[in-house]
Design a protein that fits this description.
By secondary structure, the chain is α/β, with parallel strands linked by helices. It folds into 2 domains: 134 residues, Aspartate Aminotransferase, domain 1, CATH 3.90.1150; 255 residues, Type I PLP-dependent aspartate aminotransferase-like (Major domain) (Aspartate Aminotransferase, domain 2). It is built from 14 helices and 17 strands. The strands form 5 sheets. Strands 4-10-9-8-7-5-6 form a 7-stranded mixed beta sheet, sandwiched between helices. A 4-stranded antiparallel beta sheet has the order 13-14-17-16, with helices on one face. Helix 2 runs antiparallel to helix 10, helix 3 crosses helix 10 and helix 11 packs parallel to helix 14. The two termini are 39 Å apart. 46% of the residues are buried. It is an enzyme of class 2 (transferase).
Length: 408
Amino acid sequence: MDVEKIRADFPIFKRKVNGKPLVYLDSTATSQKPLQVINAVKECYENYYSNVHRAVHTLSNEASEKYEGAHEKIANLINARGMEEIVFTKNTTESMNLILYSWTYNNLKAGDEIITTIMEHHSNIVPWQSLKSRGVKLKFVDINEDYTLRMEDYEKLITPKTKMVTVTHVSNTLGVINPVKEIGKIAHDNNCLFVVDGAQSVPHMPVDVRDINADFLSFSGHKMLGPAGIGVLYGKKEILEEMPPFMYGGDMIKEVSKESTVYNDLPWKFEAGTPNIEGGIGLGAAVDYLQKIGMENIRAHEKELVEYAFEKIATIPDVTIYGPTNSKIKAGVFAFNIGDVHAHDTASLLDEEGIAVRSGHHCTMPLTREKLHLQSSARASFYLYTTRDEVDALAKGIEKIRKVFKLK
């Protein structure tokens, strides 16, 4: 990978923040956008923007072809059997809610159980918590001292009443890469639906839904160089066919009479109303960009950065990093604290140096507050455009903070 060549595709890296070159280390929250994606959206607006699936004129046909083509590109990226298994949503959160309303509401009853983990993003906890009012019980797999999942918990927690197992592929706080294929086998051996949160894996590494044998996998376009407001729910065709629509209205129908409605084919049955046309087309362009570079190359680049970051940052006195130290199971996500410095102070002082990191609980309060007992933490995260020089800048910023707070 020629990282400098890649960075030239991203206009935002030309700007400065507080008089300093931008060091963007917040890609876990959202990624920056290359010109190829920006231009694809611009071209849509300028040359062929029209509603999809609603007309026979040239603009609508061109927009529909591009929009449908984006579904096909996503299917190819994650090795789905076809575009009918790719539903466009707003984001990972909406994808999880689609599962909630269209699958769990029709398949779970009082007394049934769902197993998730303590390291999940809120979007893989809160929807299932809402089922408590229906008598569904939510159980949590814990983590070991090395921040990996306590795999033996699955055997302890699964019962004949367990109907769904859900897990994040990559923790957005710990950066740990979970053994989803192994967890999926446990789920299916116990006749459970298997749901994967791929928001932090699909943008950063090869993901094969058939190899994982996921029943559902969700992710967001804005985290993988695409526009905001476009997300994906992958679902096995046979499961999606049995599910009722998530929302009702235009484009998710074939026929409507005063008495009844015949729903549309997959995936359109789950894409009611005018969709995010330009977002889908932009996501298709993002997939083209990522596949041209190669997901294996992106993962290898981030693995090298992880190893380098441990050399540069983990050795600094007073720095505590939360997550595994083994780069083979560690994504480019570094949640950390500097002594007793509040994470918001850390983030603010780093921002003065032009360095963008996140601070807070990272939408993982059961992990950070209840399990790790943290008031908050700062989080630096890497992507295909991150350089070693930026890791060096982070290390220098941390050293400066130590001096400001007179840490020894």
